[in-house]
């Protein structure tokens, strides 16, 4: 499949004291049309920075130092600021994890969607309103013509997230980046949002980069999974390969921490320690300070990717040579 989005060797840094530290360090992945790639990991692993880097939305003093970000064959890092503004919304769009802070509190939600349409297309205010109401209906906002004139504070979290999805899909972008799209929503609303994203992805053949720490969400929506730890991708594979045949100790630890009926009544397992801050990352494998399978070389050497199939790879010295 041809990649809609191709990220290669991405490095994004921030100043830490008197030096700069790469918070995203050599990250590479691809997302094809109609495919959902989930980027997963604990908070502080660099998932959201990766997502923001992809659309060149890193706030200063952050900076993309090297790598390529190709969208439909164009390297976004070579575009001017004006050209990049035209890419956002029309070719690629992003759904942020907290809609309340993403929506303007003093503008009606409908006017914000209509403004996004008119920003990229020469159309009348009336036509933009009509299309916005149609989008509200498509994402199942009740009474869309009435809700067009609502302010964000008058809507529930689930409805605000639907507004964000409508805005993101207003111009049928080929790439949709969803950063924790179900955070802070109750279970029922989460399921509705995930089903909505699945339907829209199939209808428009949209490539989706899903940023999440919730492996339940991943199981519902993802085709492939990339596991991120301390600024690097440590394992990548299809949903089945990662969820049932994980190789990296970190990935296996994440999976063991998920509640299940099979372990009902038992204490949940946990990964000891926390993700170290960028200034304290080890020279070798960055998981070595928390890994129960650590080897002497892990502390000083960076493991290369080891392939287990054409779609499944992991970076770890501790995986037995007999593993296949």
Structure description:
The chain has about 325 residues and is of the alpha/beta class. About 30% of the residues lie in helices and about 25% in strands. It has helices at about 45-55, 80-90, 100, 110-120, 125-140, 145, 155-170, 185-205, 215-220, 240-245, 250-255, and strands spanning about 5-15, 20-30, 35-40, 65-70, 75, 90-95, 175-180, 205-210, 225-230, 230-240, 305, 315. The strands form 2 sheets. Strands 6-7-8-3-9-10-12-11 form an 8-stranded mixed sheet, sandwiched between helices. Strand 11 (about 305) and strand 12 (about 315) form a beta hairpin. Helix 4 (about 110-120) runs parallel beside helix 7. The protein is globular. The mean pLDDT is about 90.
Summarize the model shown.
The chain has 324 residues and is α/β, with parallel strands linked by helices. It is built from eleven helices and twelve strands.
